[in-house]
């Protein structure tokens, strides 16, 4: 699969295109060399034959047939290796002179030039060889064949063709290998950028793209992206700091206002005024809950990896306690409340934070599931990890909004009319991140009119052999202490 993915990369395709262009150039160059060498030698052979024919024609004109026969016999005698081929005969194929005893079968072909094989049928005593000759008619009813042994030439041409084929094969192989190596090197750099980008998209904003120090294009791209990320984080931290400061600064006067409204509520005798004061107290409680949630999320996000002392926690028993707390609320809405809990499942974490995470998810499921609906709570082990799932038959979350639902104050369009601040899942996400877990959203009943939502939280299972011990900085207040100080 990795090889197939490597072949699909744009870098490899570009290298493949370069390979085709390069191979075509090499092929044209080798073809030109072949044409200039083999073609030249073939033309030279034909010119040699033509020169011998011209010499014999001159002898024939000056000395007649007897002189032609004498000249052919002299040339045959001077050429014991039979590089030059001659045959002079009558129309009845009676040999008059030459080093061939018979006419080749190709002698009847039109055009004058023939290529044939020298063998024993022609009176050749050695191994078969290739020859090229020209045949023409001589006055007086005679036929003359003048040719050359071209077996060495054909062998040389075959060697050149083999060299060209091997050269093309080696060129293609090297180009393919080079393209693969170049693509692999580039793909590795791109994969590093992709992996880091995925981690950043999953919320790990502290991640940065590594560089090699070569100051090449990829290093420049990585440096630009890192600077962009630094700027984004700086702006986000600024906005977050402002919102947290506003929440912190407004909580104290809002608490005082709420207490004053509650005092007024106890002193008012008029029923209508008491109702108005009670509504104002409820609104103040809602505002305080929102500010407290904001500050809680801020504390969790600033803790990062310095969480309070993590201890073994029975996730199954913790979820059972939360279900016992919310079961009555589900019964009031006539909702089925199914529990499939393995109480032996253990994790390592902060019990209070985990209980708040579980409570938020169960509360959301009850809140967004209509009456007569169903809720399923599960705690299981999956591939060595602890899994907590909450499924409901509520309004669900559209696929295009699932990636934004963990943002602060974000609420799905269908649920905007229901009470809430849009901070519950942000708090859940922060707790999951602190415990090195992951959270996913899925349709509980795909294809239904009300598909519902299934929230799956995966946490590392507690391992006594690898227990992590972490401490809270001495200057960090607990949430209760900070609330009291406010």
Structural category: alpha+beta
| Nearest-integer average pLDDT | 77
The CA-CA distance between the termini, in Å, is 59 Å
How many individual β-strands? 12
DSSP helical segment count: 9
CATH superfamily of the largest domain: Histidine kinase-like ATPase, C-terminal domain
CATH topology of the largest domain: Heat Shock Protein 90
Protein name: histidine kinase
Subcellular location: Membrane
Organism: Marinobacter zhanjiangensis
Domain Histidine kinase: 245-463
Task: Quickly list its features.
alpha+beta, Helix Hairpins, Heat Shock Protein 90, 16% strand, two-component regulatory system, phosphoprotein
How would you concisely characterize the structure shown here?
The chain is α+β, with helices and mostly antiparallel strands.
Topology:
Elements: H1 2-7, H2 10-78, E1 84-90, E2 95-98, E3 113-118, E4 129-138, E5 142-149, H3 151-201, H4 217-267, H5 271-303, E6 311-314, H6 315-332, E7 336-341, E8 346-349, H7 351-368, E9 374-382, E10 385-392, H8 424-434, E11 438-442, E12 454-460, H9 479-485
Helix pairs in contact: 2-3, 4-5, 5-8, 6-7, 7-8
């Amino acid at each position: 699969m990795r090889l197939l993915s490597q072949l699909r990369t744009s870098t490899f395709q570009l290298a493949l295109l370069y390979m085709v262009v390069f191979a075509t150039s090499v092929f044209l160059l080798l073809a030109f060399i072949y044409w200039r060498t083999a073609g030249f030698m073939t033309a030279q052979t034909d010119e040699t034959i033509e020169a011998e024919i011209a010499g014999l024609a001159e002898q024939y004109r000056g000395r007649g047939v007897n002189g032609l026969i004498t000249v052919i016999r002299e040339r045959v005698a001077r050429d014991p290796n039979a590089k030059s081929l001659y045959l002079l005969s009558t129309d009845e194929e009676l040999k008059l002179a030459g080093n061939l005893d018979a006419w080749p079968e190709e002698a009847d072909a039109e055009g004058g030039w023939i290529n044939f094989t020298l063998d024993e049928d022609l009176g050749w005593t050695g191994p078969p060889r290739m020859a090229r000759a020209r045949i023409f008619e001589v006055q007086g009813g005679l036929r003359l064949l003048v040719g050359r042994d071209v077996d060495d030439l054909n062998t040389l041409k075959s060697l050149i063709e083999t060299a060209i084929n091997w050269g093309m094969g080696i060129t293609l192989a090297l180009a393919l290998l080079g393209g693969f190596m170049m693509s692999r090197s580039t793909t590795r750099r791109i994969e590093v950028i992709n992996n880091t980008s995925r981690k950043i998209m999953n919320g790990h904003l502290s991640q940065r793209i590594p560089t090699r120090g070569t100051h090449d294009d990829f290093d420049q791209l990585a440096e630009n992206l890192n600077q962009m990320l630094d700027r984004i984080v700086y702006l986000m931290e600024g906005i977050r700091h402002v919102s947290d400061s506003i929440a912190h600064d407004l909580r104290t006067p809002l608490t005082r206002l709420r207490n004053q409204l509650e005092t007024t509520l106890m002193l008012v005798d008029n029923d209508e005024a008491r109702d108005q004061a009670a509504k104002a107290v409820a609104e103040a409680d809602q505002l305080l809950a929102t500010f407290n949630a904001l500050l809680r999320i801020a504390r969790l996000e600033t803790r990062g990896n310095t969480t309070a002392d993590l201890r073994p926690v029975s996730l199954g028993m913790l979820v059972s306690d939360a279900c016992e707390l919310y079961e009555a609320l589900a019964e009031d809405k006539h909702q089925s409340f199914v529990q499939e809990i393995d109480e032996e499942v253990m994790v390592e974490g902060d019990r209070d934070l985990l209980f708040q995470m579980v409570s938020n998810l169960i509360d959301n499921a009850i809140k967004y599931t209509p009456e007569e609906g169903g809720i399923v709570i599960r705690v299981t082990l999956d591939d060595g990890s602890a899994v907590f799932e909450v499924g409901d038959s509520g309004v669900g979350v559209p696929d295009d909004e699932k990636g934004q639902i963990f943002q602060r104050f974000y609420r799905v369009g269908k649920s905007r009319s229901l009470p809430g601040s849009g901070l519950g899942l942000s708090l859940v996400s922060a707790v999951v991140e602190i415990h090195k877990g992951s959270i996913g959203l899925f349709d509980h009943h795909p294809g239904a009119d009300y598909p519902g939502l299934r929230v799956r939280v995966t946490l590392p299972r507690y391992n006594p052999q690898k227990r992590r011990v972490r401490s809270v900085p001495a200057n960090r207040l607990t949430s209760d202490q900070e609330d009291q100080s406010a």
